[in-house]
Amino acid sequence: MFKLNLKIALRNLWKHKAYALINIAGLAIGMASCILIFIFIRYQLSFDDQFVNKNRIFRIVSNWESKGSVDASQGVPVPLSKAIRNDISQFEKVAAIQSTGGVVMALDQTGKTTFKEDIRVFYTQPEFFDIFDFTWLAGIPQQVLNQPNTVVLSEEKAIKYFGTWQQALGKTIRFRNKMDLKVTGVFKELPENTTLTLNVLISYANYPYKDSDNWGSVGSSSECYVLLKKGIDINSLDGALAQFNKKYYKNDSDGSRQFHTFQPLKDIHQNSRYGNFSGKSIEKREIYSLSVIGAFLLLTACINFINLATAQAVSRSKEVGIRKVMGSRRKQLVMQFLGETLTISIISVLIACVLTEFALPYMQNLFDEQISFSMITHPVIFVFLIVLVLVVSFLAGFYPSLIMSGFSPALAIKNKVAAGNAGGLGLRKILVVIQFTITIILIISTLVVLKQMNYMRQQPLGFNPDAVAMVGLPGDSLSQLKYTNLKERILTIPGVSNLTFCDVPPSSNNIVENNFSLNNIKIKDFQVRMMHADFKYFETFDLKLIAGKLLTKSDTANGYVVNQTFLKMMNIKTPEEILGRIMSIHGRGFPIVGVIKDFNDKSLRQSISPIAFSSQKNEYYNMAIKMDSKQIMPAMKQIEKLWNETFSNDVYNSQILNDDLNNYYNTERVMGVLFRVFSAIIIFISFIGLFGLISFVASQRTREVAIRKVLGASNYELVRMLNGSFLLMVFLANLVAWPVAYIFVSKWLNDFAYRIPLSIWPFAIAMIISMTITFITVSLRSYKAAQTKPIDALKYE
């Protein structure tokens, strides 16, 4: 029976080649898109799955609530890990980890440098390896970092520094040219789908501020992970955590408060609110959006199939009638038609797999991720393909099979099954409306996403990042003596117009926030973001002074410059009111000497922080060099040469500031590309289906068109007659799509502190696009039908 049904299915596909091609093309493209979306989502959801205790691992994060707004950070105060370990007994292990940057040098037995690089390293408590189960090539996890002046390396770094990982054991690396560390362990490289991008881990005993008791300073580089004891629900710790927060933070009567919460390990990669080591986060909303788009694509392809299958039902009515007369039961006919749909689905999924292989390199490049389509490595992909085929076969084939198997044998043999009754003309119209509703929603969404991205690119940041290079500086005191000489030499390079020493550029995710007092009154409403820079910083980045004066030339702090947001948070009406007040941070008080205009210190998704600038030479980790945009490349080469001459024992690294700022919006850029691509695919699927449907309708109405021509109807009137119903359906689809699209894009825009006003234009443009393409598609086929000679259609009547 199966062989017979397969043979009949293949014959019918060959007999109706045009419709088979449209169905297979639509399903194959829709399936390929779904497969690409699935393998990407599978990859994103697999982050940190490799850790055995993943469901018991949490990160402690910081939150500030003030005047209705909530700020957040992945960082915690340094003393928190010790306090959590002592105060909350439900944790099996607690580990602090502190990230920092600097030059690592590999030394041979004679003390000679064999390799060096500027890299991010982590001061790590030994308990970290009890929480996360690394695969160790050498070393005992509980012992590798329990002594000072020890370090563990990833396999990649061990090989890079010492040739083989075996040779690395017992060898020495030097950090920041002042700390010699013995290699006590080597762990296997962590997979790409982890938030822990760790390569060099130093004993926490070497962390300079490990004994700090300052609860008022939070840096994004200071993190704390905990392992919950087995059998304990994290929600049962709400009371204990509330007591912990109350013990270490005094909240104000107006509701302002600082507090900590627990973030599950599996949430870190999908939550950019707090950030992660890798710096890559794909929000849950993006994953949900891609899932919805995949469902839309599949639904659109299935609607195509249903419309064409039910439209073709009339031409197969005689076949159904004869089969029923010969004794076929309805159940057998349903299975036959479902078998045909299954055959088409299998052919489509095979083509979809080929299309996926072709598209995968472009997707990997777009996401900058090594996404795999290997069904051997990831059997869940094979399971998904089987489920996809079965779901498509059922969705696309079940209803048409019920319609065709339900024909009356007498009417079917006499060829009296009307086109309107074959599957219900009304249902086909509803399906077309649904299909185009989906298409229009995606068109509107794409237009809004692109407009928002363009708005963010053009939005003034409040500072000038153009042609500025951020060049790293060594952090040791000996190197600081060379800063002035290097600055003078760099300023002589043609094309260099300015240079400033600083910790970070005006916009940076490297954030340090501190408690402070003003005129000896402790401010509890909010923390201030500290930035350190010399007197040339404001000129280099074109920051605008609105009151007082800027920082003066000094190697140490002697005054603060604050921004307008600081004044707003303090409820101060005019800038002059704040001048002269003494701001005290970490017990060191200096007057506020100036107020600058607000600038965006973070992504445009976030609001501006209250900021205070001070001069502090030992906090300068970068040079910001302003250049002539036409001379950047030759100037950068000379800067690198002078830098290497000055700091011969260190490693040069630089970054063009605009490139770094563009990375803020990488997720939006990716989503913009995806919306464009998938919108184009859905439009293509919808309109090839529309072309197939109008072709069938035109062939069914050939005699009607011929008679109307004989009676004097013009080609224009015939085209208008065939076009009318389709244009009306697309117009109705626009009316349905508009409110749905409005809700979707409004919610998406709410995630941005700076966003475009939602106007009528994206909706109007979507209507114009959909109506225009429908008109062109239907008119081309209608005109061909109207051009048919009446005698060819009526000669057998």
Automatic annotation (TrEMBL):
Keyword Nucleus: no
Coiled coil, from the record: none
Topology in the lipid bilayer: Multi-pass membrane protein
GO molecular function term, any single one: transmembrane transporter activity
Name of the molecule in the record: ABC transporter permease
Any one Gene Ontology cellular component term annotated for this protein: plasma membrane
Ranges of residues in domain ABC3 transporter permease C-terminal: 292-408, 677-789
Domain MacB-like periplasmic core: 21-242
Localization: Cell membrane
Transmembrane segments annotated in the record for this chain: 20-41, 287-309, 333-360, 380-399, 430-450, 673-697, 718-740, 760-780
Keywords assigned by UniProt, alphabetized: Cell membrane, Membrane, Transmembrane, Transmembrane helix
Pfam families attached to this UniProt entry: FtsX, MacB_PCD
